[in-house]
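cron nightly-structures :: item 1 of 1
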Amino acid sequence: MANLPAWLVDSRENVLKTQEWHNLTTNIYDAVDQHLAQSHVQYFTDLSDAEKSLVLERAARSLKGTVNGALSDLLDKGVNNDVSRSLLKDDPLETKTDIILNKVCEGIVGLLRKWPDQKYKLHAFLNQSLPQPIRFVGWNLYLSNANHRQKFINDLANNPRNVLSPMDADIQRNCDSLVRTLPLAPDMMDSKGNMSAMKAILSYFHSLLSNKRDLADSEYYYVIPIVLSHNPPLSRSGYFIEFDTIIMSIHFNY
């Protein structure tokens, strides 16, 4: 369970020790044995994927509520105990609520990185404002493209000038002038990393256009939320796009 917070790993271990979990696993084993006998099949692995899912769903349905209740209680205790230890040891400036939210975000991000196929569960946040760490990992899982990313890496390695537009300086000036007009100007302008990343993405994008047309204002605006989603936030002192190509691939796949 590497890269998962200790409180989350401990909560998992505690769930496995509960009577609710024991009842669930017993119920599943009994249901599987019964289905195999009725189907005259020797091994569970011989069932089709649809049959496996149906058997497990039926077996878990009656106990799902009690298991979820136990899981919720243990997760609540786990994260609160961890927060209490942090408050005693670190004397942080954030409120307890902020620390809890940060730790929950850390847990969600860790789970998504470990099991990216579970990204569909992010639908629970539909129409909700996502904390930056979750937004970044969500966009990365849904929008990043390994082919786009590798192409940029190859172009950069072959000749760094290949990733720059002939209009690179103009694109930089346009970034500066357009961003100044936006409500979020301080978030962008106060960070050289954000501005450098914005220009780098647009310059590379423009270098790939066959007609080398001028970029529309909308294409400039469109890059900003991608840059601001980056977690951790890009360095205020500077940014080298070759060290992190994730937002580049997100832009090209968006």
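cron nightly-structures :: done
The longest helix spans residues 64-90.
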